[in-house]
Design a protein that fits this description.
Blueprint (H helix, E strand, L loop, with lengths): L2 H17 L2 H9 L2 E10 L3 E2 L2 E2 L6 E10 L2 E10 L5 E13 L2 E12 L4 E12 L6 E9 L2 H4 L2 E9 L2 E3 L4 E13 L7 E15 L4 E12 L1 H4 L6 E11 L1
Antiparallel strand pairs: 1-4, 1-15, 2-3, 4-5, 5-6, 6-7, 7-8, 8-9, 9-10, 10-12, 11-12, 12-13, 13-14, 14-15
């Protein structure tokens, strides 16, 4: 990715933030609408315990809008070394009932330079009943996996967020186990990867927040059968919420 491409991503991010002025933010809050935007960089593009790129990392930009449990937005990624980009358009609905958070949604994936696409339907549940401990489960189904036959992927996770500095800093260590059902691999199902890491979220101002993470994935049978191995990567970015 050339420097001018990264500059364009950052410029779009700040335009998104400035476009929603302070007065717009007040009016949106009164109407129950919330806006968000973010830019970031990942040292490697890892998903389902696999490195999606032959070399380098990836820069991302995203934006979304929410209203009474409904959320919609986009996520765009551009590789910094190889020729690759990806656009995700998503919409979802979530609700919390008695400390149980439920959500479901749809994502349209467009691999622009590869002239390819995918459709994903997902649903998840998180239990916020325990103090500083959040177990969660998410399942996603791809319509184009296995050459169009479809496939699924499930992740069971456990997160333990801790607030520091009067709540301005949140550290969130996590554990995650992935299970593949024809989503990432056509020939192997079952235990995919075990992942752990530490996420951090720091409030710079009322609007701008800094976020980062350090992650490590241990390859299970599904990944190793495809020649994959363990992966370590980190992420960093800045987000704005109105």
């Amino acid at each position: 990715m050339e420097l001018c491409d990264l500059c364009r991503l950052c410029a779009v991010f700040f335009v998104l933030v400035v476009r929603v002025s302070a007065q717009d933010g007040i009016e949106a809050e009164e109407a129950g609408v919330n806006y968000s935007a973010a830019v970031g960089w990942e040292s490697r593009y890892i998903s389902e315990g696999r490195n999606n790129l032959d070399d380098g990392g990836i820069a991302t930009i995203e934006a979304g809008v929410g209203f009474e449990g409904f959320d919609a937005g986009f996520w765009y990624a551009l590789a910094d070394t190889v020729s690759y980009d990806e656009l995700n358009l998503f919409c979802q609905y979530g609700v919390e009932v008695n400390s149980v958070e439920l959500y479901a949604g749809y994502t349209r994936l467009e691999f622009l330079k590869d002239d390819d696409y995918d459709n994903e339907f997902y649903a998840g549940v998180a239990l916020n009943h325990f103090d500083r401990l959040v177990p969660a489960l998410e399942y996603v189904h791809s319509t184009e996996a296995q050459n169009g036959d479809g496939g699924g992927f499930a992740e069971a996770s456990l997160t333990a967020p801790v607030e520091l500095l009067d709540g301005r800093l949140i550290l969130a260590p996590y554990l995650l186990q992935g299970f593949d059902f024809g989503y990432a691999s056509d020939h192997y199902d079952g235990f995919n990867n075990f992942q752990f890491g530490l996420g951090a979220h720091y409030e710079l101002t009322e609007i701008f927040h800094l976020r980062s993470s350090l992650n490590h994935s241990i390859a299970n049978h599904d990944v190793r059968c495809e020649g994959g191995g363990d992966e370590t990567w980190f992420t960093i970015g800045i987000c704005a919420a109105l």
